[in-house]
Design a protein that fits this description.
The chain is about 0% helix and about 75% strand. By secondary structure, the protein is an all-beta fold.
Length: about 150
Amino acid sequence: MAELLRDYFIKITGTQEVDGEKDRVVVETTGHYEEKDGVKYIYYKEYYDDENGDDEKDAIVKIEDGGLISIIRDGEYKSQLMLELDRQHQCFYQTPYGDMLIKVYTSLVDIDLSENGGRMRAVYSLNFNGDFGSENEFIIELKRIS
């Protein structure tokens, strides 16, 4: 990705429930939001610790006019999560333990984004090899900086 514009504050809250246990992760970063031909894009970098020190990967959230949301992560371990209300998608994840194909079913999508900022929320379940994996929710909040 070219030099990233950082004109939005981005807060991502992810919740995952597995076997009755909930885990919550909050990521705060800066990035860019834009709309092109009816498609909304959120660009940001994710930073994480690895055994060699801090690393980063590019992330794009693409929201198509028909409601399909794609979350695409680049870097050493690539992934693409596709979310669409009341639809199931197969998605690809690379992990340190090998590549995985997962099924994703989305039960709720709420999007209210504009150049002034806003919020989006999705609730979805993940299935691995035909078995239920987890119930998940993510919320992305945007606030214009400049």
